[in-house]
Amino acid sequence: MSTIARRGIHFMQRLNSANVSSALLEKGQNRGELVRALGGAVATSSLLGVPLGHNSSFLQGPAFAPPRIREAIWCGSTNSTTEEGKDLQDARVLTDVGDVPIQEIRDCGVDDHRLMNVISESVKLVMEEDPLRPLVLGGDHSISFPVIRAVSEKLGGPVDVLHLDAHPDNYDAFEGNIYSHASSFARVMEGDYVGIRSITTEGRAQAKKFGVEQYEMRTFSRDRHFLENLKLGEGVKGVYISIDVDCLDPAFAPGVSHIEPGGLSFRDVLNILQNLQGDVVAGDVVEFNPQRDTVDGMTAMVAAKLVRELAAKIAK
Ligand SMILES: [Mn+2]
């Protein structure tokens, strides 16, 4: 039996032992309802896969990432506890609502404008199920725009965006594509960026235009103390964290489309995440490209640990 199937059975056994009503278990499809029945969760991270890779300017492999990340989250080589001690097997910490069927929708001839709306609507559906909060598995970085739009619309106001990336992704329309993975943050239009090390003149001009704070790798050692003690989300609806796996140095995460040496270490990213003060309302982990990973799936494990620690940050 696959690990994921076995985990599904454990999930149902836990619900049974927690005296969740059998009528609810039989319906069984509504994760929000099941988590509420367990009681005691203020916020539960809910995986939502968005297997979209066609807005990449170079390679399209990120479309294959969500199942590889799930497999790595539940891989028997590690346990289900996060660094600060949350148990991912507890459905109040982490649950999963599956993938948006991106390819099937595209096969019906749906264009990108409508596809972005489908992604936004899917995120809103997750958020309707209190206490679920979306933790989105990319996909290329173009998905952050419809996800952040949905989170902000659903919460009724702006959120602070913490964006960790080798690239600012703020071209107005990269190669003419307004939905390009290199343009998602021009659409989002505001946020704080960390880890930038591949930036063009347009990237700097766009950041200035939108009032974005950028922290570059070349000055990271100077900014480290500040970035590892961020306080975000005050006066807005919360904090959104978008992690492009290529924010990491390729020594830590070779399985990405755009290999850019000189990045953050895995521990740098965890320090930023774990010390961040603020209400994290949603997030994404994007741009893992399984087609460029090592044979033993090292980057899948790296992406999975980013998801696990981000899940712990969201859940309470
Ligand atoms: Mn990037």
UniProtKB/TrEMBL annotation:
Entry EC no(s): 3.5.3.1
Catalytically driven reaction(s): L-arginine + H2O = urea + L-ornithine
Signal peptide: none
EC class of the enzyme, as a word: hydrolase
Annotated cofactor note: Binds 2 manganese ions per subunit.
Membrane listed as a keyword: no
InterPro entries according to UniProt: Ureohydrolase, Ureohydrolase_dom_sf, Ureohydrolase_Mn_BS
Gene3D superfamilies membership: Ureohydrolase domain
Gene Ontology BP annotations: putrescine biosynthetic process from arginine, via agmatine
Molecular function as annotated in GO: agmatinase activity; arginase activity; metal ion binding
SUPFAM superfamilies, alphabetized: Arginase/deacetylase
Keyword annotations of the record: Arginine metabolism, Hydrolase, Manganese, Metal-binding
PROSITE patterns: ARGINASE_1, ARGINASE_2
Cofactor: Mn(2+)
Family the UniProt entry places it in: Belongs to the arginase family. Agmatinase subfamily.
Annotated protein name in UniProt: arginase
Species of provenance: Trifolium subterraneum (Subterranean clover)
